[in-house]
Structures are given as structure tokens and as C-alpha cells.
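Chain A, query sequence.
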Amino acid sequence: MYHLVMTKNVKLTCAAILLLIAMLLSSCELALGEPEEGTMRVLGIGTAAGTASDDAVDFTNALSSLASRSGRSISVSLIADTDRAEAQAVTSESIEQSIETLATQASDGDITIVYISGQGWTQSDAKSADGKGIIYGAKDARFSSEADYSSRFCILDAQMKPVVYGDELVDALDEIPGTVILITDCDHSGALVGSKSIEVDSTDFDASSADLTANLFSASSVDSSKVQILASARRYQAKAAGKALGDVNHSAFTAVLLEGLGYDQNTESVASMPDACQDGRVSINSLYRFVSDACEGSAETPKMSSSLIDTVLFTF
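Chain A, predicted structure.
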């Protein structure tokens, strides 16, 4: 009897330790990188007219204003269907060429941020009765550690045609020198992170423990790409209802991002210290913490790829 109790306790302790390790990895708060000295290069993409394009316009406006306030050098380009700012037309070619340009212009000390707002789509191997692929809709849908599900994710344009495929996007961004951050406000965009990061399901302790044991020390458990990804939703989630800032309608996630960055929609600038600022710094982790807290209980759950180094965006 004593032996059985000891065995059970040891198993519970080991499982708890594994879960703690996973939460530490997923928190992305293990180290704080020093502020970069180089240029911040921003590419904003809104894949359709209206909300998606307004999201891209105002996100790039917010970063430009923050850079001005913090004294940071910034270069901004925009791909969107809008008359609010100068922008390239939304095509697969314009996106590909803009990313190639970033790769030639950026240097090791730069930070490149690519932001995309639009409709995301992802498909599983499962087939419905009519033989068509089905969108992930179940919260307990689990990814195989053998597959790269980012290749099954794409972002659609106004005609509902793919303009960006997940695997091609991440591969292209991987070629850009320096620090690279991808922020996506798209349905199911957590698929971009895929099986390369560890997820813990608190409602299924045994399954989560088994997944951790199988994946914790495998290559698939750690994102092999250098691109840091902040996604608006999990792979099984669609976009939440939009939110208006002033007279402009935004996607819910982007509206929260803009609020965290201190963006004033009326002046199209940042006039005060951002709410996402901590200890005089806005970092990718402080921004993630802000949007995660603000989205708690909503239809979208932001997700970020694991990274041992936090990236400082602005200092004040």
C-alpha cells in the first residue's frame, strides 16, 4: 500500500513539473533582450477593404507614432485596399516582393514586424460526409507532432482566394536578418505556431502530461524558426466580433492591440504612455500580456510562440 501511494505521488509530481516547464516556456518571459539599436521595419497588410485595411493602417500609424516618441528609427510600408494612406494593392506578388525587399534592406541589428489582418482558413486531414475538408472547430483537436500544420493555414483576400500560405510566409520571414516578429489578426492563425510549441489543456491533465512527456525533448516541441509569432486566435477559433475605436471599425484583437499601444483614433497617433508599457519599455511580451488579459473570456484567445528572449520594441 505504501509503495502504491509513493508511486502515485511520484507520478503526480513528475507531471506537475512537466506542466510547470511547459508554462514557463509558453510564458516567453525567461529573459529580457536589450533594446535594439537598429531600424524598426514595419510591413502592414490588410487583405481586404474595410476593417482589415483599417486595422493595418492604424497599426502602422501607432508604431510610427511610438517610434517618434521614443526616438527610434522606423521604416513603414503598407499593403491594403484603402484611401486613408499610401498603399500597394493587395496581391500575392506585392506581399512576396515586399518581404523580399525587407530581406535585402534589413541588417542584424534591425527589428522587422510584419502585421496581417484578414480572414484566415485552415483545414485538417479529416473529411466531412461530402468529402470536403473541415475547419478545426473542436477545442480538443490535437496536432500530431509529425506534421507542420502551418502549411495548412492560409489568409484569404476579398475574393476569398489565398494570398498567403502559412509555411511559405514563415519560410520567407526566416530569411530576413535581425529580429523578426509576425503579428496576425486572422481566424485560426494559431495554426501558424502549430505543433512547434507546447500547449497545456488544464481540463485534460493526463493527456497534457502524456503530450509533454512525448514532445518536451523532441525537435517539434520547440519552434525551430527564429520568427516570433503573435496570433490573435487559437487554431480552432474564428475572429471575435469587431470593435469600434472612434469612427473606425476594427477587428477585436487589433482594437485591443491599439489600446495597449496607447493609440488615439481621433488624432491617429499615440499621445500618452502606452498601457502595455512596463518599466519604461514596450516589449513583445508586455504587449502579449496586455492583449491576453484584455481578451480573457472573449471568443478569441491570443497565442504566442515560445521564445527564451523577450524583444524590446520601444523605450521611454
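The helical segments are 2-27, 51-70, 92-105, 166-173, 205-215, 252-260, 284-294. The radius of gyration is 20 Å.
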